[in-house]
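Figure 3 (text version): structure tokens given as input.
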């Protein structure tokens, strides 16, 4: 049996992360989870973060709420799964906080990272799959859904988030794989499965 691995999907809103995470988890017989909201406590925290009626949440408070969700998620879901020998596939991870609250909100990325180093301890994803799609594809997909608080944050915010993901991927190519997710779902899934096999041997 191969050593259990922790794989995270990252990317902008509407890039297809949830679909591809579900497909990969099925292919690997992995535990499928998500951030935020991957636990019962996390669901309550997520409700605050994504509620469009919440208009006065301080950026620092938002960052701490997300870190709290992550600490609970890793303790309750991710670490126990890995310790039991199961692979874990997560729809978002610590890198979303760096992108959204750091690059997106404009908080010092080093400070956001420091908070999350404490929250995650040594449990960082072994592989990060960054799904990218052209802006027009994102706009088309988002037009078909009711937008939450983050999705309504505006084009400039989401552009900073995307740039943040790109910078992190460029800085750590051994951990990140950039995947063009604009094509047919089956083709994207095959590309992801091949990358996981080549990088992690699973």
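Below: residues designed for each position.
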């Amino acid at each position: 049996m191969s050593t259990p691995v922790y794989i995270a999907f990252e990317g902008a809103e509407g890039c297809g992360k949830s679909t591809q995470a579900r497909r990969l988890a099925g292919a690997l017989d992995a535990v499928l989870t998500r951030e935020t909201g991957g636990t019962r406590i996390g669901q309550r925290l997520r409700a605050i973060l994504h509620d469009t009626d919440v208009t006065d949440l301080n950026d620092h408070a938002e960052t701490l709420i997300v870190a709290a969700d992550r600490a609970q998620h890793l303790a309750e879901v991710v670490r126990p799964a890995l310790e039991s020998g199961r692979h874990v596939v997560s729809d978002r991870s610590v890198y979303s906080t760096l992108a959204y609250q750091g690059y997106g909100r404009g908080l010092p990325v080093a400070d956001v990272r420091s908070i999350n180093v404490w929250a995650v301890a040594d449990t960082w994803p072994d592989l990060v799959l960054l799904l990218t799609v052209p802006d027009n594809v994102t706009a088309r997909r988002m037009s078909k859904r009711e937008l939450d608080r983050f999705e309504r944050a505006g084009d400039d915010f989401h552009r900073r988030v995307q740039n943040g993901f790109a910078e992190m991927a460029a800085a750590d190519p051994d951990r990140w794989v950039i995947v063009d997710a604009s094509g047919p779902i089956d083709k994207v899934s095959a590309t992801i499965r091949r990358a996981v096999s080549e990088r992690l041997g699973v």
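The chain is about 55% helix and 10% strand.
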